[in-house]
Amino acid sequence: MEPFTKVTAIAAPFPEANIDTDKIIPARFLKTIKRSGLGRNLFDALRYENGAERADFVLNREPYCQAGILIAHENFGCGSSREHAPWALLDFGIRCIIAPSFADIFYNNCFKNGMLPIVLPRAVCDALIADSTLGGNARLTIDLERQVVVRPDGEEIGFTVDPWRRHLLLQGLDEIGQTMLHEAAIERFEARAAGTPWLPAIDPAGFA
Predict the structure, then answer these.
(1) Which of the listed residues 35, 91, 102, 138 has the most CB atoms within 10 Å of its CB?
(2) Eight-class DSSP state of 200
């Protein structure tokens, strides 16, 4: 997983509440277990009409088609628990979402995939959305080490993240990465187990 330390990127305004995961990535695109390639179907029903990009949708317009940050309203990521939702956002290029609140499962899935969801008051989100009208100059900096959002004019807005989740993002550690930190101990255990042939073998099929 790519570490998240400091990201400076164009911020796209998405001033809508209750954006559910089916809007983020419709169910018909969930057949794949790959994390790549889903970005083209992000917000599919909103981005396309009869297979063509809608000119009025924010992520189809310059400079927001290059956005790395999304600013939304309350309850972002509600609906089903599909992990494809953060996969699609990340594959499009979104590393950070700022909103007044998030659905719990979506919020947790973001951290597992190297994305940073930031909770800020609605008034602050609206101010950042107003900043985004600066177009190509509407770049925000998200500094996770210092836990601040830096506006285009240099103003810093503080935010808080659970310390353990912050540590994992800064180090680029997902659940597999955390496990592999103990690789040496795992190998020692397996070596000891190999020297005990009297122990019954574990059939992986028994856990299917």
Answers:
(1) 138
(2) P
Enter the pTM of the model: 0.85
- Per-domain residue ranges for the chain? 6-195
Please say whether the beta carbons of 87 and 113 come within 8 A.
Answer: yes
Per-residue model confidence as pLDDT tens for the chain (208 residues): 899 999 999 999 999 999 999 999 999 998 877 778 899 999 999 999 998 999 999 999 999 999 999 999 999 999 988 899 999 999 999 999 999 999 999 999 999 999 999 999 999 999 999 999 887 777 999 999 999 999 999 999 999 999 999 999 999 987 766 666 667 776 777 777 666 666 666 555 554 4
- Helix or strand holding residue 185 (H, E): helix 183-194
DSSP letter (8 states) at residue 164: H
State the angle between helix axes of 163-171 and 104-112 in degrees (0 to 180), rounded to the nearest 10. Answer: 40
CATH architecture of 6-195: Alpha-Beta Barrel (3.20)
DSSP 59: G
